[in-house]
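Subject: sequence -> structure tokens, single chain

Hey, anyone have a minute? Need the predicted structure for the following. Not urgent.
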Amino acid sequence: MQAIGAAGGESATINLEQARIHNANVRLQAFTIGVRIGHDLSVLLRLVTEGRLNVEVGWRGSWEQIHEAASALLERRILGKAVLQVAS
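Reply:
Had a minute. Here:
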């Protein structure tokens, strides 16, 4: 899975044919935030549970540390995802 965005200010280009040729066991799946987000999240969680999707966590902390997490992400001080714990 790859997140594609404009955080670096550059346009993102993916050559799907080259990705298919060099990664025969990889598929590209689009997930969007909308009405069916529950279904999309359940698919992602199933892939993680099955070990088919590796989710790299670079920072973990309390929900009360949201500003610290956001700063670290914006300043590119962490690799991977920031996970905020909402309840104990």
